[in-house]
Amino acid sequence: MPDFRQLLNALDTHGELLRVSRTVDRQFELPALLKQAEQRRKAILFSSVADSPFPVAGGLLTGGARFATALGRQPAAGYGVEEHRADVSRALAAPLSTIQVDDAPCQQVKAAVAGSNGASVDCDALPVPTCFEGDTGPFLTAAAGISRNPDNGVINAGIYRVLMLGGDRMVVSIGPGSDLLRFLATNRAAGKPTEVAFVIGANPAVLMAAAAKVPAEISELDVAGALIGEPLPVTAAEQLDLPVPADSEFVLETVIEGDEVMPNVMGEFGDLYGGRDGPVARAVALTHRREPVFHTIMAGAGKEHNSLGMIILYAIEPELRESLRSSHPDVTDVCVVFEPPKMGMTGEVRVQLRRGSTVDGEALVRHVLGLRAGGYDLARVLRKVVLVDDDVDVSRSADVTWAINNRALSTDRFIFIDDLPLPGVGLRRGIDTRVAEADYEALQRLVIPGSEAVLLDDYLD
Is residue 458 situated within a structural domain? Predict the structure, then answer.
């Protein structure tokens, strides 16, 4: 079964893992080096972190071939967003129930258990980095939070940033659309605490499933099993009524009690700071493997951060393509693009139409922004809609940029919409690059006839 350690070993074997033995500071120094490693398209392992006995790895799950390696797909070359989207879709359609084990690697060392000899759980030895100068403090960034849906008992997993306050206290930053936010509200109304086990260095499929949009009746842990092709081994948490992935490097068991919240700010996807209030949690147990490796994800516009962050948006493009093709017969293709840090968690949709289409541009842009796909109101996650003719490949940013620069030559081609009926949604833009038939000859693209069938590799000596 592919797992976190196998991924590290595979990256090392293939020369994709940088190693740093020099002691580094977890505040700013480690993130600065991790960012540079990602820019070199490398993962990195820090064997010595100041004031912590644990090594740190990052830059691992940066999409494409790395996802393939993590899931045991061969060959990894050529594996991209479409292949991973298809794998996630198949896993959602046919999840595999977890398998319970008793002798779990994640509990080889019981570092601290609340109430044991009157002790509280001290998390300060964990090598949690502070990435940016405006961050409130050090954040867990690669922790999958395991919780239970109080409505149906299904086990849930999501990725949450967690601000470490020192000792056994932390702030869980929960987004407005999160399942955990609903669970918390339900439990509070019933006067019950909310249990969350944060697993660090879990099977990479757990992070992928936790990042996906999963129906409430399906457990992300079952989706993770389907991604790796076999049931995911889990074990009972030490102090919580929750299963946790058995091969995790660390398990931090926490309880959210009462109504205390605290603000927290951290660098986010779009290379900007994001802040919100989050509930305060208390650690009740900390366990880990022997000689564990701590996984951290570079926040902000980091490649690993954004590669995992985009998984939740996978369903938007196929649903939008199907919707537009059924409502607008002239639509021939659709591509939804998110390119952090340029866009953050907002993107653009490119709509290809048959040459000569007379569809009203502004009406089509408004139609797209008024749709819901992949579980999202598109006006919330898209900031731009670009319309192109069918000689422009919507999957190629260079083609679309060419069309904008060479065909959108008058002000009426730029559409500005600021009256969408969604709270908090500001200006959205449309660009209509389609060419009128009378102008086509002057603006046609350069074409080599038959070039698709003439391949250089077939001619090389």
Answer: no
**Where does a domain end: 257, 291, 312?**
312
Q: Which residues, at least 6 apart from 59, have a Cβ–Cβ distance to it below 8 Å? A: 34, 37, 38, 42, 43, 44, 298, 302, 303, 304
85 and 222 in a common domain: yes
**Backbone dihedral angles phi then psi of residue 43, each to the nearest 5 degrees:** -85, 170
212 burial (CB, 10 Å; 0-12 / 13-18 / 19+) is buried
The model's confidence at residue 96, banded by pLDDT at 50, 70 and 90, is very high
End-to-end Cα, the chain, rounded Å: 42
Say if CB 159 and CB 207 are below 8 A apart.
yes
Give the three-class secondary structure for 24.
Answer: strand
Q: Give dist(CA 93, CA 73) in Å, integer.
A: 19
User: What CATH number should be reported for the domain holding residue 222?
Assistant: 2.30.110.10
pTM across the whole model = 0.90
Residues 139, 456: Cα–Cα separation, whole Å: 49
Tokens matching residue 61: 């799950």
Rg (CA), the chain: 24
Q: What is the length of the chain? A: 461
Task: Output the six-digit token pair for 134.
Answer: 């405006």
296 and 343, same domain (yes or no): no
pLDDT of the residue at 115: 64
Instruction: For residue range 131-171, list pLDDT tens digits in order.
Output: 999 999 999 999 999 999 999 999 999 999 999 999 999 99
CB-facing half-sphere around the CA of 135: CA atoms within 13 A:
27
- Check whether the bond before 318 is cis (ω within 30° of 0): no
Structural domain containing residue 337 = 315-453
* CATH number for 344: 3.40.1670.10
Judgement on whether residues 284 and 321 belong to the same structural domain of the protein: no
